[in-house]
Amino acid sequence: MTERLDHAVAVQPEPMFVSEAELRRRLGMGEKKWRRVRAEFERIGMPPADHITGMWFWPAVKAFLYRRAGLETSLDPSRSISVHEKEYWDET
């Protein structure tokens, strides 16, 4: 038997820009560790804080972390597989 929900659940969208404190929280790091890790992350390509807002563009930071972990997160449609391309997996 399924249970019916009688109320709507409000889902808050994830903010696009995050403060340094929020970025540290999302990464699970205290200030001391963050200082060491931030320098290394920036050296290997983590996007810097936005020069206007002083905050980090979270989708870009998340994409950096995914790439660093070996996951592809490209939003560039030219890099994705087209549904019109021939697939070879089903040929015998």
UniProtKB/TrEMBL annotation:
It comes from the Bacteria. This is Uncharacterized protein. It comes from Kaustia mangrovi.
